[in-house]
């Protein structure tokens, strides 16, 4: 339910979107959610590789998103007999002013859902490199505890404003931490904010993704980590499954480990969406979406 391609995420990902879909079919995927990054709207939000010609880089983002939606719909129809393709995007909550823009993107008839994601603290990237991460720490008050507090407060702002069906990499703040495996319950204020956010996600029917990209980035557990995942389950939360792939090489990466992790905390089913009508039948109206439970054991069979 969370994927990217080099075609529409240049600089961060590899491969054409169609090749990613064909590979997903070859490894047994029955459903794939396409979630290329949404366009950003301000020069200050560009990444270093976009700063050689900033105005040009910014001007390319919106047309690239439109091209993505057009290609995604073509592929959705072309491969309908082989795989169920959902069309979405990954939201970029840099500041509250992005809220109305994200809602406008989500209103497009072809969009089935979007990821509610946070990659920044105080509009500074926390998953780009250590230099940016340290800048974010400084902006939050100078300690990782303060950064975590700010991360979960800004995540809560996003959750309240958007109520995304799927919350992306819930605890991304630990990626570049000095201790990614720390038990955040040691920080009482941080843990209070974590539980508050989890309660809110459950209250409106949102899902967390079990995102296995944390494993390929060297962490011991997926996003979210065990402590948070167990608390979420106590609250009645539901998981979907994601590789957060950035090209063919990362499709289904560490899925077996991720599924075993879910089983170890008592998860028997993960959730996805089933859309009707079939591609091309809805005209200019949004498809109807139904929640669909998939047994974890059924997915594991593809990776044993």
From TrEMBL:
<dbReference type="InterPro" id="IPR010140">
    <property type="entry name" value="Histidinol_P_phosphatase_HisJ"/>
</dbReference>
<feature type="domain" description="PHP">
    <location>
        <begin position="1"/>
        <end position="213"/>
    </location>
</feature>
<comment type="pathway">
    <text>Amino-acid biosynthesis; L-histidine biosynthesis; L-histidine from 5-phospho-alpha-D-ribose 1-diphosphate: step 8/9.</text>
</comment>
<protein>
    <recommendedName>
        <fullName>Histidinol-phosphatase</fullName>
        <ecNumber>3.1.3.15</ecNumber>
    </recommendedName>
</protein>
<keyword id="KW-0028">Amino-acid biosynthesis</keyword>
<keyword id="KW-0378">Hydrolase</keyword>
<comment type="similarity">
    <text>Belongs to the PHP hydrolase family. HisK subfamily.</text>
</comment>
<dbReference type="GO" id="GO:0005737">
    <property type="term" value="C:cytoplasm"/>
</dbReference>
<dbReference type="InterPro" id="IPR004013">
    <property type="entry name" value="PHP_dom"/>
</dbReference>
<dbReference type="GO" id="GO:0004401">
    <property type="term" value="F:histidinol-phosphatase activity"/>
</dbReference>
<dbReference type="InterPro" id="IPR016195">
    <property type="entry name" value="Pol/histidinol_Pase-like"/>
</dbReference>
<dbReference type="Pfam" id="PF02811">
    <property type="entry name" value="PHP"/>
</dbReference>
<keyword id="KW-0368">Histidine biosynthesis</keyword>
<dbReference type="GO" id="GO:0000105">
    <property type="term" value="P:L-histidine biosynthetic process"/>
</dbReference>
